[in-house]
């Protein structure tokens, strides 16, 4: 009977240890900002955004110089023009300045929209690679160790090398 009790206690302890071991979740971490920055698609995105920004900047400078030239011309001719003509020219210059401001705002909005459109597939690719590696390693939780993410301690496995390898990043 004592042997039976000892076996029963040992069995209960064994089951308790197994249940505790199964209840523990595997946790890992990765710096998602570093991963995305290392992806070749991000470098391509940055180059494309730079080209688009330069095109907007060139157009803005062209419109600005055109406005400046018109303003100088009107200033030089102002003494020889009537008050009505000068007021008409002031209104015209005011409208051109507003158009220039609107163009600058729209260019900034379009650039930001383009950045978001280009970033989305890069982010999704990185997320999929992280999920795939985590699933392959049996990891249930992956914490983001990027600065400002709120993670204080990350002593779990770092998935960065494996995810970079999957994405072909050196």
Description:
Helix content is 76%, strand content 6%. It is mainly α. The N and C termini lie far apart (64 Å).
Strand content: 5-15%
What is the string of helix and strand elements? Answer: HEHHHEEH
Separation of the first and last Cα atoms = 64 Å
Shape summary: rod-shaped
- Please give the order of strands in the largest beta sheet: 2-1-3
Largest sheet properties: 3 strands, parallel
Oligomer: single chain
Helix content: over 70%
Structural class: mainly alpha
Q: Low-confidence parts lasting 5 or more residues at pLDDT below 50?
A: 3-23
- Mean of residue pLDDT? 85
The number of helical elements comes to 5
Q: Using DSSP, what is the number of strands?
A: 3
**Mind telling me the C-alpha Rg?**
32 Å
Task: Name the descriptors.
170 residues
Topology summary:
Blueprint: H1 2-23, E1 27-30, H2 32-38, H3 40-77, H4 83-137, E2 141-144, E3 157-158, H5 160-167
Parallel strand pairs: 1-2, 1-3
Summary, kept brief:
With 170 residues, the chain is mainly α.
